[in-house]
Automatic annotation (TrEMBL):
Protein's name according to its UniProt entry: Uncharacterized protein
Organism: Calothrix parietina FACHB-288
Amino acid sequence: MSEHLPDESIENIEPPEVKLTVPQLSDATSAISETLEKLEIPEAPEIEKTWLVVAKNRRILRDWEALMQRHPENTHRCYRDLCTAPTTRQPGRVFPLKGKKYQGVWEYEVTKGDRVFDVPDEEQMKVVVFYAGKHIQPAPTP
């Protein structure tokens, strides 16, 4: 005889990965982009590879969206960097964490007080964001 799980236990299960919301740029940022084009200053290099960027669960997606509301331009830059080169170091901004429990974990400084922690998977070309929000000590574990 098989036992069925009650419906309420299904609600407690953490949902699977969800694709992150793409940050939209404000009109002011669009004007800056147009100015850069007129000055022939490249805004970003051509994208050769595009990584899939996903949130670990819906709670992380909610935190990501709150971060987009607070700092849209910085979050847009973070998203672009995660899509194009998530394992490229940027001194003081993007770097891997040290220690056994943080193996494969990268930290992205979105602002002075906000961070995104992620785990890039080069085989699947996927970045799983497991924390987005205020800088906390110690760093969260995936």
